[in-house]
Amino acid sequence: MVQKYQSPVRVYKHPFELIMAAYERRFPTCPLIPMFVASDTVNEFKSEDGAIHVIERRCKLDIDAPRLLKKIAGVDYVYFVQKNSLNRQDRTLHIEAYNETFSNRVIINEHCCYTVHPDNEDWTCFEQSASLDIKSFFGFESTVEKIAMKQYTSNIKKGKEIIEYYLKQMEEEGMTFVPRWTTPVMYKLENSTSHIARPVSPAINIPDTATKEGLNNKEVLNTSSSPSEPTAGTPDDKLDADYIKRYLGDLTPLQESCLIRLRQWLQETHKGKIPKDEHILRFLRARDFNIDKAREILCQSLTWRKQHQVDYILDTWNPPQVLQDYYAGGWHHHDKDGRPLYVLRLGQMDTKGLVRALGEEALLRYVLSINEEGLRRCEENTKVFGRPISSWTCLVDLEGLNMRHLWRPGVKALLRIIEVVEANYPETLGRLLILRAPRVFPVLWTLVSPFIDDNTRKKFLIYAGNDYQGPGGLLDYIDKEIIPDFLSGECMCDVPEGGLVPKSLYRTAEELENEDIKLWTETIYQSASVFKGAPHEIFIQIVDASSVITWDFDVCKGDIVFNIYHSKRVPQPPKKDSLGTHSITSPGGNNVQLIDKVWQLGRDYSMVESPLICKEGESVQGSHVTRWPGFYILQWKFHSMPACATTNLPRVDDVLASLQVSSHKCKVMYYTEVIGSEDFRGSMTSLESSHSGFSQLSAATTSSSQSHSSSMISRWRFC
């Protein structure tokens, strides 16, 4: 498995030239890096005007590894080749390094870059990335990987310290300024008298073969800059180390790398609209910084938020009066760590009455609104206290808890709520203080604890009776001045006292079921199933030409082909007895076909967009500017994998896939909207204007460029 590392942008508040002077003091050896024994210059090139300086060194490293492993490997030292390409004119330094020792067994590549800060030319940015691929190593692959990662992360931490050490050393020597490179006078005169202008020291990328064989001036001047070289980013699209420490907390180098790599993946696949960094970090922490696992649950959560419009819940949903009167919970100041404090008087709450009066879904939606408010309060407290706060504390008072609270439908609702919150709000609970736990509590705990994540369970502190008033109790976590009055504190708490819900507010099972369906299906998105041989189709009637059809859909399962057709004929609505059109209802959504089998393409209807193949997990958003009035048919069609081009025989994978019924079914979640061309501001903006469900967790960067073509489509992986 290839291990990768990507650093945040580290900013030195010193000019590039001064940083370069400090960096050069690391060679030929650096006492601050004990493993860096020595280095020898292998190749060196300097351009005539002094702007370009390329130097290649062979570095000798004494790796801190077990003596037995070194003996088995037959080496005492490891050698690396490092090539530094300095461009004084562009003020950049690119560093490339790779291992020479065991290069047939272990592949290590590193790239570092010093550039000028995009917003302040007197500051310098530093980035580095690396990859480690261990092919084989005498059966010690896992051990070598751990040693390599340990050594590398240790050196990463020292990197900035070393530069700052030499900066301080230079300051003590009286060296606090290094002038910028300027074109020598002789080159200025030559350029002014020459009839043919030629560039002086253009930005270049020195090829590896050139440095190994010896460089000459002609080779340098004929080399163009490589477009694949990483360059310093702006604060808008990259994270810097100071920002991470201020708003996200102290992360190890590998944790920083995981955050940056997952964030980059989201930027590439979500076209600039990504969740906030704190939200990404929560999912990484929930999966111990395993990027693949974190990415899976994060994408599932983003799709869930989008489908049920959770982002708008605080603005669009008003809790029923019954909840406001009888739900004994509310926000109450903050704990000693600055976390928002939520107080829940569960023992005083009539869970049975609330479920009978409101239903399970209304309770779930209310809990979701509480969590959304918690996220907002965490952001506010981060600004107020000047340190990262990404979770809240929950204080649960169980006085009054009895067997009534163990009513089966009530426990079922509680387990459902726990399941949804665990999946979509990981690492938001910083601490749970359970006070005055009665004898019946172990029964409730036995029921709910299996549904609670192990990491979350470690945050539970349980106190029986009045134990919370003693040492190690409530005062260790909450200031005395804000302890609620019902816990013998001095602070008046506005949390409702709860009490029994009047039976006159109870509703029948049928009413509750209808209400639950209404609550949880209030979404602008619709679901549809697509089968092999049975596409799903919808039609949109256009009266005014130059209208704009916009769409937004997620491919939740399988691969599909998206088509848009135009017809002057009216597609017939699905009828059970129709031979040409029919519909299928399945648990995953409806399947409707509108194009009659007797219709001919080119005669009865025409294709107005090229077919678009969409893979499982992609989310597609786009628009089509109509040219004619009539009926436009949007079609999602099953996409069959093409057979092998070199043989007529089916592939093994194709045969296995054909044996699986599920492989012939796809699922999409879609939304469409028609707007006037005068209101159209780009597909992404038009969809946002109609509440397309894009996550407000994201610091949205929306493209609103006007399209001159008939269609605009953007895609990203979502599920």
TrEMBL record:
Domain annotation PRELI/MSF1: ranges: 3-175
InterPro entries: CRAL-TRIO_dom, CRAL-TRIO_dom_sf, CRAL/TRIO_N_dom, CRAL/TRIO_N_dom_sf, GOLD_dom, GOLD_dom_sf, PRELI/MSF1_dom, SEC14/CRAL-TRIO_domain
Residues annotated as domain GOLD: 521-674
Keyword Phosphoprotein among UniProt keywords: yes
Annotated ranges, domain CRAL-TRIO: 319-495
Main localization (coarse): cytoplasm
A cellular component annotation (GO) from this entry: Golgi apparatus
Gene Ontology molecular function: RIG-I binding
Entry annotated with the keyword Cytoplasm: yes
Subcellular location field: Cytoplasm; Golgi apparatus
GO biological process, one term: negative regulation of RIG-I signaling pathway
Keywords: Cytoplasm, Golgi apparatus, Immunity, Innate immunity, Phosphoprotein, Signal transduction inhibitor
Pfam families in alphabetical order: CRAL_TRIO (PF00650), CRAL_TRIO_N (PF03765), PRELI (PF04707)
Primary role: May play a role in innate immunity by inhibiting the antiviral RIG-I signaling pathway. In this pathway, functions as a negative regulator of RIGI, the cytoplasmic sensor of viral nucleic acids. Prevents the interaction of RIGI with MAVS/IPS1, an important step in signal propagation. May also regulate the SLC18A3 and SLC5A7 cholinergic transporters.
Quaternary structure annotation from Swiss-Prot or TrEMBL: Interacts with RIGI (via tandem CARD domain); the interaction is direct. Interacts (via GOLD domain) with SLC18A3; the interaction is direct. Interacts with SLC5A7 (via GOLD domain); the interaction is direct.
Name the UniProt record assigns to this protein: SEC14-like protein 1
Naturally occurring in which organism (per UniProt): Chelydra serpentina
